[in-house]
Every structure is written in C-alpha cells, then in structure tokens.
Amino acid sequence: MAGLGPAIHVFLLGHEDVDARDKPGHDVSTVAAFMTIALPAAGIPQRTKLDLSRPILILFAAVLCALIVLPMSWLVYYSLVDRGGAFTLGNFVTLATDPTFIDPLLTTLILAVSSSIICCAVAAPMGWLVARTDLPLRRTVRALVTASFVTPPFLGAIAWELLAAPNSGLLNKLYRAVTGAPQDEHLFNIYSLEGVIFVISCYTFPYVFVLLANALDRIPGDLEDASSILGGRTWTTARRITIPLALPALVAGALVAFLQAMTLFGSPAILAIPAGFHTMTTKIWSLFNYPPKPELAAAASIPLLVLTVLLLRGEHLVLGRRGYSVVGGKGGDPRLIRLGSLQWLALAFVFLVLLCPVFLPYGALLNATFSRVATSFVWFDNFTLHNIYFVFFELSATPLAVKNTFVLGISSATVGTILALVIAYLTSRRAIRGYRTLGFLATAPVAIPGIVLGVGLFLSYARPPLVLYGTLWILFLAFVTIALPAAYQQMQSAFRAVHPDLEDASRILGSSRLRTLRDITAPLLRTSVIATWCFIFVGVIRELSAAIMLFTSETKVISVLIFDLNESGDLGAISVLGLIMLAITFTVVIAVNRIPGFGDARLRNA
Amino acid sequence: MSKFPFSRRDVLKASAALGASVFAAPSRAQAEASPITPELVAAARKEGKLAFYTAMDLPVAEKFGKTFEAKFPGITVRVERSGAERVFQRIGQEMDSRIHAVDVVNSADGAHFIVWKRNDWLAPYLPEEVARHYPPQYYDPDGLWVTTRVWLSSLGYNTNLVKPEEAPKSFADLLDPKWMGKMVKAHPAYSGTIMTATFQIVRELGWGYLEKLARQKVMQVQSSTDPPKKLALGERAVMADGNDYNLVQLKEAGQPVEVVYPQEGTPLVTGPSAVFKSAPNPNAARLFQNWLHSLEAQQLLVDFARQHSVHPLVQEKPGARKLSDIKLWKDDPAGVEQASEQIKARYAQIFRV
Fold first, then answer.
1. Domain of B188?
2. Whether residue A122 has pLDDT greater than 60
3. Do B13 and B129 have their domain in common?
4. Could you tell me if residue B178 is inside a domain?
C-alpha cells in the first residue's frame, strides 16, 4: 500500500476510501497500524446502526443477571440465616467444626484434583495424537471420544458397577475364572474412592480432549514449518511452538475437569454411598431429605463457590493478557507428524483408554439388557427379552420421561447457545462496560453444584409471584444455567482464536457490531456454534443433580428415572433405558453434525 | 378358620396394638361402603388416566397397573414408584406447592397416613368389599385408608455363597466377624419397610445392636427391594434387611437365594392405600382403590407379588410359609411417626451415610 508505512496514521471512519488490499511484506505493520487506530475509533458512535446493538447487548446482560443472581442471592440469604430467619453465622461454624462436613469436603477435593490430573494426563497425548499426527482411524477416535462424552456419568457408574463390583462384577468374574482365585478375591472394587475417581475421570476427560484437539486443529502449519526451517526437530517444535500454543486450552480443560469432578452428583451417589462415605454433593443432597435443611446446604456450597472463583482468577493470571490468536486470516494446513512404527503403540494406547468409558461399559449394558441376571454373561440358558419388553410395554413412566427429555434438550440447547455466543462476544471483544462482571456471572454457575442450584431455583420459583415449580420451565432454567459456563468457555476459546482484526476490518468498512457478528464472526465460529449446541444438548440429557431436586411426577426426565431405578435395583430396565438414551443422543448429535465424527465442519480438511 | 391367614393370637395382638394407636377412634359410625358401579366406571373412563404413587417393587406395581388397564380399558395407570419415605417427601413437596398430581397412594409406612389424615389430605372412600370382608382393624372407619398388603423384612442369603448350615439364623448371628464385608442392607431414609423394621429393631434390640452391625462394613443400598436383588447377583452373601417377598419371587424363579426369618422375631410391615382429596382424577382413583382391594387384585398380590393379604377369601399358594408360623414383631405406625426423624438422624450418624 503506497504511502502507508509502519507509522500511525489517522483517518476518519467512513469518510475516506480505505484500500484494504492484502500486500505481502507490509501486512503485519499495516494491519497493526489499522488496529492501533481502529480500536479507539470503534468507540465513536456510527450513526444509528451502533445504537441498535447496544440495547440488545444490554438486554442479554440483564437476562443473565436474572438467571444467575436470583438463585445465588437466595443461596447466600439461606446460608446466613437460621431456621427462624434470623441472621447467624452458625451454619458456617457448624461447617467448620462438624467432621461429617469436613470429611466430605476433603474427599471432594481429593476427588477433583485426582480426576483433573488423570484427565489431563490421558487427554493431552490423545488430543495431540489425533490432531497433529498421522494416526490411523483418527476420525473414529474422535467419534468414540464424543461417545464417551455423550454417556451420562451416572449411567457409566452403573455400568461400571456391573463390571467391577467386587463379587458380582463381570471383570472380577473373568479374573477369578482365568486365575482360579477364590470367591473372596477380586481385582477391582468400584465401591471405593479410587472407583469413584476412576469413573469420574472416564467421563470428564472428553472435556479436556475436545478443548485441546480443537485448539491443536487451529494451529496453522506455517508456525511449525518456520520452526523446522530454522532447524528445530520434531520434539523441539512440539515443545516450543505447539505446546505453548495449546496451553490455554489445556489449562481451561483442566479447570473444567476439576469443576466437573467437584460438582458431579450421580456417580458419587451410586458408588460412594454403598461404600459408606459422602462427597459434598451427596452430603448436600442428604440435607434435603425430608425435612430439608436449606441453611446448612447453602452454607456448604459457599466453600465450593469461593474455590471456583479463586481457580478462575488463577487461570486468568496464568494465561494473562497474552494473545493466543491463531486464526488471523492467514494460515496453512498443519504438518502431520509421521508416527511410522510407533503408530501401533499409539493405537494400543488410544484403544486402552477408550476401553474404559466406551467399550467395556456399553458391553456391560448390552449384556445386562439380554440377561436375566444383570451380572451374568449372556448365554443360552439366561438369554431373555423380558427387560426390553418391560421397558417398552410395562414401564408406565417411559413415554412421558422421553418426551420431557427431548423437549428440554432441544429448547435448552438452542437458547443456551445463543446466550453463550452473545456473552462470549461481549466479553472477548469488550463491547460494553462491565464486561468483566458479565464474564464472571457467565462462569459463576459452574461453582454451584447442580443440586444446590436446584435448591436455589426451587426456593426462588416455588412461591408467588412466579411459580414455576411443577412445570418444565424450572427445569429449563436450571439446565440453561448449568450449561452456560461450559458453553461460554467453549465460545470464548473460539473467540480468542479469532483475532479481532478480522472484525475490525469489517467495522472499518462501516458495518455495525451486530452485522459484523452475523457476517464475519459467526461463520468463522460455525463449527464452535454447532459444537456448543451439541454440547448443551448432551449436557442436558446427562444432567441429574438439579433435575433430581426440581422434578415432579409429571416433569420427570430420563436421568431421574434411571436414578430411581438404580435405587430399587432394577438393573435390566436401567440398561435398556440407558441404551435408548444413548441412541437418542447419538442420533441427534449425528443429525446436527450431518457427518459422523466430531468437529468435521472445519476450515480445512482432515 | 382355616382360610384365614392369621391365627387368633395374631389377630388379638394386632388389634391390641392398633387399638392403642391413633387409628382406632372409639365407637364411630362407619363410612358408607361403596361398590363398583357402572356409573363409577363410566366416569373413570371419561377421566381416562390416574397416577398411582407407590413403594411396591416396580414390576409388581406395573403388573397391578396393567391388570387394571386390562380390566377397565380406557384408563391409563401411571406408576410413580420410589421408596415410601421418598414418596412421602415428594407428595409433601407437591402439596406444599399446590401441585395436585397424586390420585392413589400406597405406602410402606403406616405413619404417613397418620400425617396425611392430620393434614386432611385424604378422601373418605370405603370400598364395599372391604367393609364386607376385611377385619375392622385393617381399615380406617372413616374410609381414609385400607391395608392393601402385608409383608416382612427378613434376613436372607445366597445359596451359592453360603451353605445352609452356616447361614445366619438370627439378628445376633449377623454380628459374627465372619460376615464382615459380606452383608447388604437398605436405608430407612429411603424405604418405608426399612424405617418400620429399624424402628422395631431398635425397640426390641436397642441402638447398641445397630452400632455393632455398622462395624461389619455393610453395603448400604437404598430400597428394600434391592438387597434381595443384590443377593441374586451374588454381590453379597447375606442380607440384613429387605423384602421377604422379593426373595420368595426370586427363589421361585430359580435364583440361588433363601429367606431366613430371625429367631428373635421378624419385623412386620403393613402397606395401606388411600385416595387423595385433591386427586385430579377422583373417579378413576376411587375405581382403582376399589379394585385394588377386591379378591381378584388381592389374589394377584399373593400369587404374583408373593406378599400377604388381609382379605379372608384369598388362597395362599400351597407350600407357602404362613404368617402364623413365623414369630412376628408388632407393627406400630404411631410410634414410627413420633420417632422417624430421630431414627433417620441417628442411623446416618452410625452408618455414616
């Protein structure tokens, strides 16, 4: 561009003809110059087009406040009052001194940290193998990780009960048959802290994998090419280019895994209670068994909330303000690392990992579906179709539960995605004042265990003026609120990877924020938007902790039905329902993505 | 009285206990007995559905629902099954929020009906067959509830894992160190059966017994229908409490389980049913309540569910264990109602969950 060097040039928006042609050699500096000027100029109101964007953005902010602040304020209120309604700090005192509260808190922390570490240790190599190497069956691996994400953790816990219960578990039976060990001995005991950690890790590692694989997908090849050209070997390139660029995703993933593990209810309720210990979530749930003690439960959730806030601040400090944009309108295909003979080792590793969340549990559920006794191997003498018949023709709660689940899944996913998209835009582009608070509010629900959010919503909406308890609306609110943090994090990662200068180019040429969002940013984020929709849909199907507080007999969902059935020990029915649930979810996810495999609508070919 | 399932002594014991309870109000005129009339059936059919909240084992409850649907086509039965204590909690929550969804309830804990009667939530409806045949202590004179079923919370063992001569024969036997880590039991905060059984165990054997039992590292499940199923799976060798009828069903289906009635005495559990005043389908509810206590349904209870009926005309299966042959402990719903909270709290303290 003649005449424009690396100096700062002032020009008025919309009054001069700006030549925005791409010119090699000048690109970096001219773009930087445009950017330096463009950002402050963006604040100047652009006739009436900009004014329309603002009210809409503020409306979203208000909706978010109402959605999150209302139940949270009830929570804080209840934590600071006693039975009679008078102000007291007694609840916190009880919390700090009563061992029946301290033990679950410690257990929860150990659980969350261990799960997070295991998830990262497993998901990181897998993500790298799938995204940056020529591992065969890469797309299949991605699909199978999606499968393990889609599986609800409580269903996985029940399936692992079938596999690893100390005396009746299928794996233990195999072990005894192979080694000839006596009846008393077992290889695995799923009813233990290790068992709970294992099962939680199985169904939380997809979060880390997805974030990491997507981030690694977006790293353009020319950065690594540059490193190779300058003489760096494969490992040096990986260490100094790839890993730092993937670090934000890994940190975000580790955080999500930690928080998921901390707030899960179903798996601990199914595996820890028979073993005789509580985690924070099951303890809080037990405080609501009639007569409910909401004050103690609210007080018990405050430490979890504080912990999450600290972790989020920590993440911000670690990642800082460094930009990790890799989509800047320029890029090349990633250079896939050739594994050669190592590919068999890599495949074996991947296969072993996927055994735990997918192959073994699904196999156990299939076995239990067709077997008269759930933990006996299906053979000619105990094959039966009775379980299937029972669920389809006798279990009267099935049709209603399936319908409710579908309705809630689709509506929550749609509304949640729109919300997450707009809020992530607002915070990552700093479009309105107070965007930091908005970001905090969007992420805050992640610290509230689903069960406590359920209680907060119950306390907010079970009384006039707005009585939503007993309708699907209260469940809808709960699901959207719960899904929002993860969806927001995903969209924020996606936004971070898209550099602002693409949008600024559009704004320089005169379009409003909303138009830019629609025409430039949204298409670039299409993959992430679809992924987020599926994410939320799947998240709703597998949600149990809030649903179990808020459902009534007419608003039951499949997850609650399965949990109820597990409490009465009807394993055959659970297996059939679980497989139906998985079938529905897979069908919807595949239909939405149109092609089997995860994140296929990418900017480049696999 | 050869057809009557209880001995005279049992009847006297039971009536004495019930007479001392809140239920038996002295010399009150009985509610009007209502038969199944074509008008009732037509009105029920117009409503077309009903919600049946119950603590029965799920296949049993669904069987009742399906049999009713077959007999009265056009009326769909939706079964809401959970532990009796949970059902009580959910109904309380729904009624507090003015959600009227429950039509008929069958609970495993008689104490609930004391509370519901006090809250004036139950509709007076006395089926004609009940008024004609049932002994008076098995239904409320105002027709607010009727005893639908009777069963026991027994011990049990898996015959593949335990030889009959080694099997426990009493509550005291369960404290033997050889059963450490080999037992399963259910939870009184979930199950009405277990709440009743725990109340009776505490009354007869004291809290000290439960404290010793807790040291045996017992696997803690929720529903009283679960320990028998865990025995059939082979997950544990012995059950410390749970429904005897599930064990009988499993045994008759060829599973390797056996029932044991402890020597000290076996907790007796009665399961009444009632119609709610605020039922959204009142006619269907009354029809169901009527049918549930008819000879046909009670015979199904004995034949399929393997429980005991108070209907005098019901035939027990030949070779089935009669209630009169077992040493029973007294049922005491009023006592359970008073002690329920304390039992839940202390149990959670002892068993840590």
1. 152-267+338-351
2. yes
3. yes
4. yes
pLDDT one-digit tens code per residue, A216-236: 887 777 887 888 888 888 778
Band of residue A76 on the pLDDT scale cut at 50, 70, 90: confident
Cα–Cα distance for residue pair B308/B6, rounded to 1 Å: 10
How close A282 comes to chain B (CA, Å)?
A: 9
Is B225 inside any structural domain? yes
H-helix or E-strand spanning residue A482: helix A472-497
Picking from B62, B63, B97, the nearest residue to A462 by CB comes out as B97
Domain annotation covers residue B333: no
Q: Are residues B227 and B174 in the same domain?
A: yes
Tokens of B110: 């008689």
Which pair of structure tokens corresponds to residue A83? Answer: 């039975």
Contacts of A395 in chain B (CB under 8 A): 58, 62
CB A595 within 8 A of CB A140: no
Whether B70 and B172 share a structural domain: no
Res. A40 pLDDT band, cuts 50 70 90: very low
- The H-or-E segment that residue B328 falls in is strand B328-329
Assess if residue B305 is contained within a domain.
yes
Domain architecture of chain A: domains with CATH: 109-283 (1.10.3720.10)
Q: A37: which 2 tokens? A: 């000027």
Show the tokens assigned to A590.
């595949």
Q: In the structure encoding, which two tokens stand for residue B304, read together? A: 């399929």
3-class secondary-structure state, position B274: strand
Same structural domain, B117 and B19: yes
- The residues near A50 (Cβ < 8 Å, ≥ 6 apart) are A512, A513
Confidence of residue B334 (pLDDT cuts 50, 70, 90): very high
Of B183, B199, B197, nearest to B231 (Cα)? Answer: B183
> B90 and A277: CB-CB below 8 Å?
no
> Across the interface, do B92 and A394 touch by the CB < 8 Å criterion?
no
A271, A561, A585, B294 from A452: Cα distances, Å? 20, 20, 26, 45
What's the total number of domains in chain B?
A: 2
